[in-house]
Amino acid sequence: MKKSHIVGILVIAVAIAAIISTYGSSSTYANFAEAKKSDKELHVVGHLDKAKDMHYDPIKDANYFSFYVKDNKGEECKVVFFGTKPQDFERSEQIVLTGAMVGTEFHASKILMKCPSKYTDNSAEMKEFKGTKASI
């Protein structure tokens, strides 16, 4: 067997291993009902339930934040995030949670927020700052 054939086989084997590892570590989108049935890490898309209480006490435990989310199917679940509360969390329009169900709670490892301020036209606010120069 030629050296070029051996190198080619090794390159193909590495490529296949990379594809399998990427596919195996990727998570899928689901709702809370599907997350209850699964042991894998999933993405759940939903909206913050502002009628329910959020618990975050940075003096007692800065790495514990709990709140309630309604997924796109309308099912509500308590979410626990072991990290600090994201800035402007209450203003988020939509939330994408990455995590898994633990009992009746969804334990999130990541929180991604879609804030309405990033997607709306703020031309009135922009006019205030137009023409001003910052001094260094």
Shape from CA axes? elongated
Helix tally equals 4
Q: C-alpha Rg, in Å?
A: 22 Å
CATH class of the domain at 28-119, named Mainly Beta
Helicity, in percent?
A: 25-40%
Assembly level? single chain
Distance between the termini: 67 Å
Strands of the largest sheet, in order across it?
Answer: 2-4-5-7-6
Q: Structural class, from helix and strand content?
A: alpha+beta
Provide mean pLDDT, rounded. Answer: 79
User: What is the CATH third-level topology name of the domain at 28-119?
Assistant: OB fold (Dihydrolipoamide Acetyltransferase, E2P)
Pick out the low-confidence regions. Answer: 123-136
Overall strand count: 7
- Annotated CATH homologous superfamily of the domain at 28-119: Nucleic acid-binding proteins
